[in-house]
């Protein structure tokens, strides 16, 4: 079977990953290839050379001076991304060697042009509905397309425009391995308002523990105004770490704090943490409650710093081997890849390839 995977264009698929979407797509491609699936990947410029990705880039973006003077001229980065996906989809229209197109991007154009391609399309819904993607799905003929969501919560958010199966995200449990634990808390993710790391610092302070924070700064104004003033001896920002360093940090921590200020579609950092044996404490939002099980963590009402802080000691005492076992059984990359392979064969049975 030959599968084309469309990744996100804005960030490369390489360490240190810009976010969970990039990490997940990188792992999915590698996992599919270990099962003998022929994968062609389209991804952002600068992706890991071992993936052999085709760059999603517009070549060339030629605009006349008259076009540039148009008062409706959108920002050029937006225009480049739009036309880059257009070029990819125009190429795929004529391909006869593709069995399934797996749209793992957040862009609306692959969905809008799916019907023009010979191969059927599977789209993973990684986010709540967006104003670009929602109408594209509502208007399309879904007879040759399928949708999966990364959690039951996310599937329900999209239920007004499509029925999506659920394929939970998975983590490579051979990479995210058990650590010894420690005394400090840890927070991992993009440093942006909707991830609210400043809330994690407040929880740590109220619990009497130190906290270490790692991840890319996605909003510098937020970092400078809301997080940086809270840093010091009891709260340390370690920067944007590659996976080995991040795994060691999480594995040497007593618990992971998750503080979403939005409905987290899944919450990959929590699965990675449990794979390291590190339990989870934080807010019950989005898909987190679907896989953070009893004995592996405690989730409280969003914004309740006091309740989260009161739960910290109990969470830190949870059995690390049990957390690891739960992650291997329910949050593994193998489970996710198997589910996607099954979805590919369900979508393209006419090709007669045995799973």
TrEMBL record:
Q: Where is the Glycosyltransferase subfamily 4-like N-terminal domain?
A: 19-174
Q: Does the keyword Signal apply?
A: no
Q: Does the keyword Glycosyltransferase apply?
A: yes
Limits of the Glycosyl transferase family domain? 185-316
What are the UniProt keywords, alphabetically? Glycosyltransferase, Transferase
Which InterPro entries does the record cross-reference, listed alphabetically?
A: Glyco_trans_1 (IPR001296), Glyco_trans_4-like_N (IPR028098)
Which PANTHER family does this one have?
BLL5217 PROTEIN, GLYCOSYLTRANSFERASE
Full protein name: Glycosyltransferase family 4 protein
Q: What is the lineage of its organism?
A: Bacteria, Bacillati, Actinomycetota, Actinomycetes, Micrococcales
């Amino acid at each position: 079977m030959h599968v084309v995977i469309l990744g996100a264009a804005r960030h490369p698929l390489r360490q240190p990953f810009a976010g969970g979407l990039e990490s997940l797509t990188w792992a999915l491609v590698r996992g599919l290839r270990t099962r003998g699936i022929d994968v062609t990947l389209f991804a952002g410029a600068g992706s890991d050379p071992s993936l052999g990705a085709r760059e999603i880039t517009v070549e060339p973006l030629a605009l006349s001076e008259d076009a540039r003077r148009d008062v409706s001229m959108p920002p050029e980065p937006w225009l480049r991304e739009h036309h880059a996906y257009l070029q990819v989809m125009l190429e795929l229209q004529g391909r006869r060697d593709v069995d399934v197109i797996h749209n793992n991007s957040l862009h609306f154009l692959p969905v809008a042009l799916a019907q023009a391609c010979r191969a059927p399309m599977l789209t993973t819904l990684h986010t709540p509905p967006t104003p670009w993607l929602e109408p594209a799905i509502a208007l399309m003929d879904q007879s040759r397309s399928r949708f999966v969501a990364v959690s039951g919560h996310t599937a329900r958010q999209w239920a007004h425009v499509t029925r999506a199966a659920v394929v939970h995200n998975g983590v490579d449990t051979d990479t995210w391995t058990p650590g010894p634990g420690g005394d400090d808390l840890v927070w991992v993710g993009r440093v942006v308002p909707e991830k609210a790391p400043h809330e994690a610092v407040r929880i740590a302070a109220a619990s009497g523990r130190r906290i270490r924070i790692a991840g890319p700064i996605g909003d510098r104004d937020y970092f400078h105004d809301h997080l940086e003033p809270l840093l010091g001896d009891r709260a340390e920002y370690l920067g944007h770490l590659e996976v080995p360093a991040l795994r060691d940090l999480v594995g040497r921590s007593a618990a992971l704090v998750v503080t979403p200020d939005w409905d987290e579609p899944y919450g990959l950092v929590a699965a990675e943490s449990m794979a390291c044996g590190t339990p989870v404490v934080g807010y019950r939002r989005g898909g987190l409650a679907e896989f953070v099980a009893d004995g592996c963590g405690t989730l409280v009402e969003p914004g309740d710093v006091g309740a989260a802080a009161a739960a910290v000691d109990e969470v830190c005492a949870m059995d690390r081997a049990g957390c690891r076992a739960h992650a291997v059984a329910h949050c593994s990359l193998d489970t996710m890849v198997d589910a996607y392979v099954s979805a590919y064969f369900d979508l393209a049975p006419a090709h007669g390839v045995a799973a």
